[in-house]
Design goal:
By secondary structure, the protein is α/β, with parallel strands linked by helices. Among the domains are: 7-231, Pyruvate-ferredoxin Oxidoreductase, domain 3 (3-Layer(aba) Sandwich), CATH 3.40.920.10; 445-535, no CATH class. It has helices spanning 19-33, 90-98, 119-123, 132-141, 151-158, 162-173, 180-188, 200-217, 219-231, 237-241, 245-248, 253-269, 272-292, 301-314, 319-326, 329-338, 357-361, 366-381, 398-408, 411-414, 418-440, 442-450, 460-475, 483-499, 504-512; strands at 7-13, 37-42, 52-58, 84-87, 108-112, 145-149, 350-353, 391-394. The chain is globular and about 90 Å long. Residues 229-239 have low confidence and may be disordered.
């Protein structure tokens, strides 16, 4: 006994994923199998800045061989001395590795490849997500053995929670000296007299347990999964299959995947005529890139990036688009799957909308749209809040779904609205800047194309991005400098704009490269009358 040490396991689970249940399962399994075990927990914090960790130690000698003696357990994990770590989120796994918990010579790491984005990742104006491939490399470098697979997908397909999947992975790894039957008995509820009669929740947990068990216990299959995750190769067949042959033949193979996605998006957004407009615009960029790079040494990167950002801008969000997405069958199926509603369950879904004057004015002709916006502006200047119409629509009802479908069918009105005209004018200006820049120097055109990243979000964020892009086009793209210098200035301005939503970094970058800072926009000031202070109450 003195030469035998406990087997240690650290569990990292996000809130609501059943980390506590998993810990109780493992302790009950150990006792059922006749082994001593102890667990402790350290609560995490909210807003996805950390997970609740659970620490378990199991003494690998059964009670029957201890002769009445009892092992001494530790209350907390020791960095570098863990036998295993299981986690339901990839970044959380690497966070614990960064804390020194995992040892390359000792620790078995089981983690999900799925991501739940942190608050810091969501706050970024650009793509702030951590690279999953880099995270997997960290797991591989700091583990004796590693198993990486999508626990969330398995849990969803099995109709259970991720804790059951994590339990199956631990069982399949052979970490503890328990039999598979010991695990399944506890998950089933401890009743072995009628194994065919289990509750729906237990049956779902057993399905998730079995799938994870098989996935981890089969090394060859698991190695293929890890290799596939590290390769991160995308299946190009679905995107290119939807692309008409006459369109695909006009573009090089390096562009066709992104072109296929953009073309499909345009068909879904507005129809064949809009998709043809998308293709014609890309052909202008391709012609300019072929003129400056006939051999395709750069892999037609400018046209490929233009295919991405042009599709996103042309499919701008408006109330027609929102109504269409909210009322689709796939969305109802997704919600039904997320709440795990059965055939006999009653599901009610309410969508909350608050369209304001800009959203309604976007579908009106330019003259009428301007009147509506000026009216709303006068309201704001008088100290009132911008006009908006709060709506609560039950999309589970016939009337609610019908109202959304009617609004979604108004694509014909979109092309006659003021916003459509304004968006197309700005797109044409950006397109002209890309084409002209490419003709001057390939790098210049490529950097201007990448400025499409500035157009994102909705409302004030979207407007600010378009204003920043137009300012760059007006003052940096046509500057009388060497094309390479202009390209570097545009890249720096784009990076600054994405890093700082207030625009302070962008203005400093513009001035540093000889361009004027953005003009100051007028903002209404609201004066609030001070509430008279109440007289002090005298104590008697």
């Amino acid at each position: 006994m003195n030469d035998t040490r406990p087997i240690s396991l650290l569990i990292c689970a996000l809130g609501g994923e059943g980390g506590g249940v998993l810990t109780e399962w493992l302790v009950d399994i150990a006792r059922h199998a006749g082994y001593a075990a102890q667990s402790t927990s350290i609560p995490g914090v909210a807003q996805r800045t950390g997970a609740t960790t659970y620490y378990i130690e199991v003494f690998p000698v059964p009670f029957s061989q201890l002769g009445g003696r009892r092992p001494v357990f530790s209350l907390n994990p020791v960095p570098g001395a863990l036998d295993a770590m299981v986690s339901s989120e990839l970044l959380e796994t690497t966070r614990q590795i960064g804390n020194g918990m995992s040892s390359p010579q000792r620790t078995l790491v089981i983690t999900s490849s799925g991501r739940t984005l942190t608050t810091q990742e969501r706050m970024q104006l650009a793509d702030g997500r951590a690279d999953s491939a880099d995270l997997v490399k960290i797991v591989k470098s700091f583990s004796r053995e590693h198993h990486v697979f999508d626990m969330g997908t398995i849990a969803k397909e099995s109709g259970t929670v991720v804790s059951a999947v994590m339990l199956g992975a631990v069982a399949g790894s052979g970490l503890f000296p328990f039999k598979r039957e010991d695990y399944e008995t506890i998950v089933r509820g401890g009743d072995t007299t009628a194994p065919e009669k289990v509750s729906k929740m237990a049956a779902a947990s057993l399905r998730g347990f079995a799938r994870a068990y098989d996935m981890v216990s089969q090394p060859r299959e698991q190695a293929a999964l890890v290799a596939g995750l590290l390769a991160s190769q995308e299946n190009e067949a679905p995107a290119t299959a939807r692309l008409p042959a006459e369109v695909a033949n006009r573009f090089p193979s390096q562009v066709q995947q992104m072109l296929g996605l953009g073309h499909a998006r345009m068909l879904d957004y507005q129809g064949p005529a809009y998709a043809q407009l998308y293709v014609r615009r890309l052909e202008q960029v391709l012609a300019a890139e072929r003129a400056i790079d006939p051999s395709g040494a750069q892999g037609f990167a400018t046209t490929r990036e233009m295919a991405r950002w042009l599709a996103l801008w042309m499919a701008f969000d408006d109330i027609v688009r929102v109504a269409d997405l909210k009322s689709r069958t796939t969305r109802w199926q997704r919600v039904k799957g997320e709440v795990k509603a059965g055939e006999d369950d009653l599901l009610q879904v309410y969508d909350h909308f608050k369209p304001g004057a800009p959203e309604f004015a976007a579908l009106l002709p330019p003259a009428l749209s301007g009147k509506v916006l000026r009216w709303d502006r006068r309201r704001v200047l008088k100290g009132r809040t911008p006009w908006a119409l709060p709506l609560k629509i039950g999309t589970h009802s016939v009337l609610g779904m019908l109202s959304l479908r009617v609004l979604a069918s108004m694509k014909w009105l979109r092309v006659r609205g003021a916003r459509y005209a304004g968006e197309q004018a700005m797109i044409e200006k950006w397109l002209g800047g890309v084409v002209d820049g490419t003709r001057r120097h390939w790098q210049l055109g490529h950097e201007i194309a990448l400025c499409g990243r500035l157009i994102k979000g909705y409302g004030a964020t979207n407007e600010r991005g378009k204003e920043n892009l137009l300012h760059v086009l007006d003052h940096l793209a046509p500057a009388a400098n060497a094309p390479e210098a202009n390209a570097a200035a545009i890249a720096a301005a784009r990076t600054a704009a994405l890093a700082d939503d207030a625009g302070i970094a962008l203005d400093a970058t513009l001035v540093r490269h000889g361009a004027p800072a953005r003009p100051v926009k007028e903002q209404p000031l609201r004066f609030v009358r001070r509430i008279p202070s109440l007289p002090a109450v005298k104590e008697s």
